[in-house]
Amino acid sequence: MPMNRREFGRMLGVTGAIWGMTGGPTSGATEAPKDAEGKVIPGFEKTKDDPAGAKGWQPVSDRKIRVGIAGYGLCKFGAAFFYQNHPNVEVVAATDLDPARCAALAQAVGAKKTYPSCEEMIKDKSLEAIYIATDAPSHARLAIMALEHGKHVCSAVPAVFGFEAEEEAEKLFHAVKKSGMKYMMNETSAFHEALYAKRMQYQAGALGKILYSEGEYWHDGIGTLGSFNAKNGRIDEYGWRRALPPMWYPTHATAYYISVTGKRFTEVSCLGTASYYPVFQEAANQYQNPFGTEIAMLKTSEGGISRMGVSWDMKNAAGEQGRVYGEKPHDNSIVGSRPPLPPSVGAGGHGGSHGRLTNDFIESILLDRKPIVDIGDALNMTLAGTMAHLSAKKGGEWMKITPYDL
Questions:
Q1: Span 52-72, mean pLDDT?
Q2: Domain 5-188 is classified in which CATH homologous superfamily?
Q3: Are 172 and 265 in contact (CB under 8 A)?
Q4: Class in CATH terms, 189-338+375-400
Q5: pLDDT value for 13
Q6: Of 269, 250, 257, which Cα lies nearest the Cα of 210?
Q7: Which residues of 349-374 are buried (b: 16+ CB within 10 A; e: fewer)?
Q8: What pTM was estimated for this model as a whole?
């Protein structure tokens, strides 16, 4: 059933919130995306970057990485991570399956080349890196193809998706290992101010073993919204988000252990509650998924416990947050400030994470080091959710999680 203008405007507005809960493009970014009624999509409002944003930044190289960007979509996501403003990046090419969005993306990021698909863009031998901001079901396939063509890859979340997640994880892991290229997943929680401070505490040994951690991603209504529909190549109410199992999109929550410690989840037990939204009650929705909320308990590789939750239908609950508790108290003498940014790069959405994720990925290439969310972290964050959903369907049965480390 086609949506009217007001329904489509609401779809744009609510969908936008997932991409930028606490901030939007600022210095050097394109104009904030707006819904059909002309209002800025929630989460992309212009806000001040953090005061220490560019203080102390030092360039690590004068080389420019030649980047291609795939995906503009509803929230103009391909332009929201400041590649076009980074001093070590030349955005060479852009692509989106919709010709109008492709042209708009190219203009927004200053790309001189456009391609009708990411697959075609990946074949461009002049490109060194690909930023994949496409629909979730295509992330792994496109990442593998780019790695096989000798490109570094930065992918939007999640790394793998859906019924094929375990099989895709194996293929993606081996593609990264065989290629020797850098792979990063853009998990925005990794650069949330509070999480990053805990990461610095843990890495310094101040917290000791993490006894208990929890992460939450609450976003009412997202499983009812329109998104890209691979069957017709359009954005509509039957796209990949429709009746989406909450734990198939877990990384904003699971990062609250993985991105702090770099350790692994080993087992999970999860329960789900049936959603009151009609799309989850349909006998044959595309994922055979009845759950609007899923809450998981996980065992960690250092002997701790985690509670991770994702919900699409709780009222008065919104955002991405977490808590981390170790066997030692927080040490206030340890500096937990996030790394500075180039003056031309804004902090951006999701709590000021966008610019920092891009800077981390680019510097990982220039300095030949691991990015903050490498392939091992990306797959463990994602597969924990995959196995959690399977556990929920089996009534809370404990499930093993395959660990991945290069």
A1: 90
A2: NAD(P)-binding Rossmann-like Domain (3.40.50.720)
A3: no
A4: alpha beta
A5: 34
A6: 257
A7: bbbbbbbbbbbbbbbbbbeeebbbbb
A8: 0.89
